[in-house]
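Kindly go through one protein, given below as sequence and tokens. The question is how this chain folds according to its tokens.

***
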Amino acid sequence: MVLKEKGVEFQMVESQPHTQLQNELHPFGKVPAFRHGEFTLYETTAIMRYVDEAFEGPALQPETPAERAQMDQWMSAVNDVYYDAMIRRLVLERLAPMIFERDPDELKIKSALPDIEHQLDILDRRSSRPCLLFPGIARLNESEG
């Protein structure tokens, strides 16, 4: 998305975590990884910052140090706090039958919901615009059957 936003032409190479290709690009075998010529980067935040600074196009980062620090603060919060409840304990568990070929862990999902509610409340209070979620998100909270 960052490359598109900057107007940079690129070639997307499909890869799955922990494959030989991904392990060559990322020491932990995770997605995403990025290669620009002989230069390789992994981790979303590093890739986004590099693309913004290395390519022509609209600036994707705020101009002032204070605004950039706030951006870094929110990116860190997403990576360190929000990701666990929203992605690991809710989304991945709901997708477990397709991804891991097992039933979702309903206790894990249930434990995530109060944390997610608290996190979204913080986003709403700190944002100039309300946090809008697509209508289908409610289905992630519903048990199958």
